[in-house]
Structure to design on (425 residues):
């Protein structure tokens, strides 16, 4: 009996030692599990808080919280992920912890939303690359979702660069459109091209839609088309004008007028031609004035000719009368000649001057008021008008009081006229 008690005591002692060892091991295991649970709770809380940053969520502030206690200070853990919160959430009937699972579900929902956002952004990055026609962005979605490849950073950088370049290009095009508008006097501004449609969504927020550039650009195209048509008409008209004036020595080559490269040269030549035509017009206007003046003078000359013709007719009548006189005088001269037997008259005073009393330009003779006492036949007399020498005449007939003389052409400087003086050489 005593031996049995000893055996039982030894067995009890061994069981106690085993229990103590198991208790120590279990305590250590419990501490490890608590420590791991605390670290997991702290990590989840930190992750939730970091995911809350710039995400518009408050999971780390409202749902997933944890603050580790200090057993040495007898301070217990706190927060939704603490052991106390977990323990208190146990349903006494169902023995489940369903009410506590909502904190974990909130964390998972937060991750799901951010992952969905990531996938959405990744898909849009690829879509933007395709819209920008960037072959280097033609990647599968997993390639951008995969963090290890860093593809999303490279692709995002390339798309950002492309977007900046596209914006620069668009701005340059808008600036050029404005300049085109000024050149053709068509109002188009950057504000018009950057204006967008505005709608309201279900929440009452204003949403900007498509750019309203169709109508302004359509109007610009129309005006440019009209300008092109007008330019073509100008070119065609200038070509036809050059063709229609073949007598002008055109410097312009009309085949070059519509040539974009040779247009400047053609316009310079055309400008020179226009200057030449203007000079011709000025010359023509001057000639026209001179012609008008000539016509006036011609009219005056015609009037003078009419007067001269009347005077000539009158002179011819006088000549006819004088012929009769000459015939009478000639008969008298002949009778005198027969009477005096053709003897020369002597003792003629050569200092005597006489005057022309009749001139016949058609017959080139003149009658002077010197007779037989002063001149003889074949004598040469000088004709003067004041101090001006007019010419010479040779006496062909001498009568009592007059003499007839022939005007010498070779010495005639002016036409003799009634009243001119005759003198001896």
């Amino acid at each position: 009996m005593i031996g049995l008690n000893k055996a039982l005591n030894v067995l009890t002692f061994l069981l106690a030692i085993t229990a103590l060892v198991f208790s120590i091991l279990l305590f250590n295991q419990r501490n490890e599990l608590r420590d791991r649970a605390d670290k997991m709770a702290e990590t989840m809380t930190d992750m939730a808080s970091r995911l809350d940053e710039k995400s518009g969520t408050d999971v780390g502030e409202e749902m997933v919280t944890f603050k580790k206690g200090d057993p040495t200070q007898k301070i217990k853990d706190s927060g939704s992920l603490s052991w106390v919160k977990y323990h208190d959430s146990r349903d006494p009937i169902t023995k489940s912890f369903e009410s506590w699972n909502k904190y974990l579900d909130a964390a998972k929902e937060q991750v799901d939303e951010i992952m969905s956002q990531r996938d959405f952004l990744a898909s849009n990055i690829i879509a933007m690359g395709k819209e920008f026609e960037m072959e280097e962005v033609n990647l599968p979605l997993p390639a951008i979702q995969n963090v290890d490849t860093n593809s999303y950073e490279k692709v995002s950088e390339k798309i950002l660069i492309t977007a900046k370049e596209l914006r620069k290009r668009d701005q340059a095009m808008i600036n050029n459109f404005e300049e085109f508008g000024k050149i053709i006097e068509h109002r188009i501004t950057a504000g018009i091209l950057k204006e967008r449609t505005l709608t309201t969504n279900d929440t009452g927020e204003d949403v900007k839609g498509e750019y309203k550039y169709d109508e302004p650009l359509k109007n610009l195209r129309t005006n440019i088309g009209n300008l092109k048509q007008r330019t073509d008409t100008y070119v065609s008209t200038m070509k036809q004008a050059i063709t229609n004036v073949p007598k002008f020595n055109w410097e312009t080559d009309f085949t070059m007028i519509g040539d974009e490269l040779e247009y400047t040269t053609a316009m310079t030549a055309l400008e020179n031609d226009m200057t030449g035509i203007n000079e011709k017009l000025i010359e023509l206007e001057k000639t026209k004035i001179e012609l008008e003046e000539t016509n006036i003078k011609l009219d005056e000359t015609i009037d003078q000719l009419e007067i001269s013709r009347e005077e000539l007719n009158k002179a011819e009548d006088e000549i006819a009368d004088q012929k009769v006189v000459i015939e009478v005088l000639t008969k008298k001269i002949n009778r005198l000649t027969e009477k005096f037997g053709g003897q020369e008259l002597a003792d003629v005073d050569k200092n005597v001057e006489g005057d022309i009393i009749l001139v016949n330009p058609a017959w080139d003779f003149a009658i002077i008021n010197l007779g037989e006492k002063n001149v003889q036949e074949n004598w040469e007399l000088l004709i003067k008008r004041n101090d001006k020498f007019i010419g010479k005449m040779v006496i062909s007939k001498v009568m009592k009081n007059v003499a007839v003389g022939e005007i010498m052409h070779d010495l005639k400087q002016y036409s003799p006229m009634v009243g001119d003086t005759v003198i001896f050489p």
Q: What stands out?
A: The CA atoms of residues 278 and 284 lie 9 Å apart.
